[in-house]
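Before a computer can learn anything about folding, someone has to put a protein's shape into writing. The outcome of that step, for a single protein, is printed below:
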Amino acid sequence: MTTMTLAKAINSGLRQALQDDDKVVLLGEDIGLLGGVFRVTDGLLAEFGHRRVIDTPLAESGIIGTAVGLAYRGYRPVCEIQFDGFIYPSFDQIVAQVAKMHYRTNGQVRMPITIRVPFGGGIGSVEHHSESPEAYFAHTAGLRVIAVSNPQDAYALLRQAIASDDPVLYFEPKRRYHVKGEVEEVLGTPMESATLVTEGSDVTLVTYGGLVTTARDAALAAADDGVSVEVIDLRSLAPVDYPTIEASVRKTGRLVITHEAIRSGGLGGEIVATITERCFEFLEAAPVRVTGFDVPYPVAKLENHHLPDLDRMLDGIDRAMGRRS
């Protein structure tokens, strides 16, 4: 095993995919000479050349549209969207073409496209640089949506995404890029499976991406107060690994879900509804959501008030436990 940052783990995964399959190509703004805004693709242009690592114009619709054509001709394009809020110009291509081409052609055309999206806040950035648009794509049939939280998953799930014949939205929490962890170059647990971060018996706390570490800290803090919290990292947002959540809720009887995206129409509401339908008789209390607020992402000085933090998660746990209304 090797210790590396989350960004380096993604770089390593891209390098291995490029080595293993000459049909893998990378597309994105400034991913070549610059190595990407976050230097995630650093060194890949020098190693694989400009025909495999392609600097594109500043046109997200063009990036995804080109990827559709490449996939149609048998390639496996990996597209980088420079920042989460820049994905919207390509929304039409993703939901109208990428997500539907396989179904539309009755399986004759596959779209093995991986779309990398740095997402979430916590970096003190400006408008359109700290958003959480994952629910738009989790709502779209025909797309897989995953979100990684640590270097090991960053490597393994990227390799799985690129190898998949399905189109995959791959969300990477930009505030975690420089966090280090042990990485073994194996594919590990299938990308559609959630993982158990900490075991507990009183409350199930479900999250993904940049909030997984905060959720683990909340579980440790709650333990000091006598509450045993089970933390689940979803990893896959579409499809959701409901059996893992169900098994946990049947044990704990309580559910808290937290994400940076706004509450209305967020993934948390769908998970709450589904678990309530499937586990109603096991629930000891109403499920609780701890999310971003229903406002455009705020300016940098206010983002700490917007993002779910340790205190807000502990408050959600207290509400699920009936300690607070």
Summary: The two ends are 46 Å apart (CA to CA). Residues 6-20 form the longest helix (15 residues).
